[in-house]
Amino acid sequence: MQAPVLFEFRQQRLWLSGQRCLFWEDEGLLLLSDLHLGKSGHFRKEGIAVPGAVMKEDMQRLMTLIQHFRPRQLVVVGDFFHSRANVELELFRRWRADIEEQRIVLIRGNHDILPDDWYRDNGIDVVEGSLSVGDFCLAHDPADAIPGRYTFCGHVHPGVVLNGLARQSLRLPCFYFAKDHCILPAFGRFTGLATVRPRTDETVFVIAEEKVMKIV
């Protein structure tokens, strides 16, 4: 795992990881968004061939991050799971049993439609809407940002396009720090990217080959 990059922001120490998550040192939070666990199984159930290792790789990455940062809380700002229950969620049950003492909080996203007792049985505290942390806010959708509070959110799966010579270009996932909110990159590898176009007064860190680099 590549070393995370320290970003001191609004008197907070944020460690940006090339594994598409953020460790908020001052609060002891490992913050991530849009895992979409079970998405590959959902596609296979619909007859679309998707490798079965996709979810296992994401779960292993998350376990490594928990062991590295040792957070007080793991907070997912929406779309922890992709859809209704499927066989892949049994893998999550076994994974959760290995870290049953780790507190997990989910800010419910639009894809988090499993029954409430499923989350409860798997040790996940579900929050509706948004969650206040000091002077900050955590929410799934940037539209749910609380006025006057800087909000960490997801939902968008942000990416930026970098142009090179000979009309070459790359679209890379990023951490997008706008004026009143930060959109986290989608943690899940089996997700798309939505291109964002940052202004000069905004800050963007791209993720390339698991390295975090500031571009604006």
UniProtKB/TrEMBL annotation:
GO molecular-function terms, A-Z: endonuclease activity; hydrolase activity; ligase activity
Pfam families named in the record: Metallophos (PF00149)
The UniProt record lists the keyword Hydrolase: yes
EC numbers on record: 3.1.-.-
Keywords: Endonuclease, Hydrolase, Ligase, Nuclease
The Calcineurin-like phosphoesterase domain, residue ranges: 30-121
Keyword Glycoprotein in record: no
Enzyme class: hydrolase
NCBIfam families (alphabetical): P_estr_lig_assc (TIGR04123)
Name of this chain's protein: Ligase-associated DNA damage response endonuclease PdeM
Name of the encoding gene: pdeM
